[in-house]
Design brief:
By secondary structure, the chain is mainly α. The chain has a domain of 38 residues. The protein contains 3 helices and no strands. Pfam families: Caudo_TAP. It comes from Escherichia coli. This is Tail fiber assembly protein.
């Protein structure tokens, strides 16, 4: 996910980002935040891992 947003972050810093890419960056950053907020401490088996409700990846 970070590789996807790296160029957009640079474009944003340089004030060169298009509105479309800024919207995509916002969606991807929300997705990354959701992944970071997930906790895996209680995963005791592959079945538990498979049951994780993963956030939907932006298109």
């Amino acid at each position: 996910a970070n590789e996807t947003v790296d160029d957009w972050k640079t474009e944003l810093k340089l004030d060169m980002i298009s509105d479309e890419n800024k919207l995509q960056l916002t969606r991807w950053m929300a997705y990354i935040r959701q992944l970071k907020e997930m906790h895996f401490n209680d995963i005791a088996s592959e079945g538990h891992y498979q049951a994780i409700p993963w956030p939907e990846k932006p298109e």
